[in-house]
Amino acid sequence: MASSATGRRARASGMSRQETRWAWLFLAPWVIGFLVFTGGPMIASLVLSFTEYDVISAPKFTGLDNYRQLMSDPAVAKSLGNTVFYTALHVPLAMAVSLGLALLLQRVGRASGLFRTIFYLPVMTPAVAVGILFLFLLNGQTGLINAMLALVGVQGPNWTTDPAWIKPGIVLMSLWTLGSTTIIYLAALNNVPRELYEAARIDGASSWRQFRHITVPMISGALFFTLIVNTIASLQLFAEVYTMYFGNRATQESTTDAALFYVVYLFQQAFQFLHMGFASAMAWLLFLIILAITVLQVRVGNRFVYYEGD
Amino acid sequence: MATVQDRTGRTLGQPVPARAAQIPERLPPRQPWRRRALLLVLLTGCSVLFLVPFVWLISASLRPRAFVFDTTLLPVPFEPQNFITVWEAAPVLTWLMNSLVIGVMAALAVTLSSAFVAFGFAYFRFPGRNLVFGLVLATMMLPAAVTMIPNYLVWNWLGLTNTQVPLWAHNLFGSAFYIFLLRQFFLGLPRELFEAARVDGASYLELFRKIALPLTRPALIVTFVFEFRASWTDLMRPLIYLRDGALFTLPRGLKVILDQFGRGGESQWEVVLAASVIATLPMLVIFFLGQRYFVEGIATTGRKG
Question: Which residue, of A11, A94, A165, A166, is most buried by count of CB atoms within 10 Å of its CB?
Answer without folding.
Answer: A166
